[in-house]
Amino acid sequence: MKRAHRKWLIVLVLLALGAIAWWAGLFTVGDCLMQGGRWNWSGHFCRLDSLARPF
Asked: Secondary structure of 17-55 in the HEC alphabet?
């Protein structure tokens, strides 16, 4: 396999994986986790306990 063909194959595989991740909402989950929250898979929302103030 030529080098240029291999590069295009790798690019296409990465694009496909990125599209699947976007479709599954993994970028939103990643944003939630980076903010220190926990992702609720059944409700599809981010729980940011660190922002809640105890009363």
From this structure: HHHHHHHHCHHHHHHHHHCCCEEECCCCEEECHHHCCCC
Q: Which two tokens stand for residue 46?
A: 């981010």
Cα–Cα distance, 14 to 4 (Å, whole number): 16
User: Of residues 2 and 20, which shows the higher confidence score?
Assistant: 20
Q: What is the pTM of this model?
A: 0.60
Q: What is the DSSP letter of 11?
A: H
Max CA pair span of the chain: 65
Per-domain residue ranges of the chain: 1-48
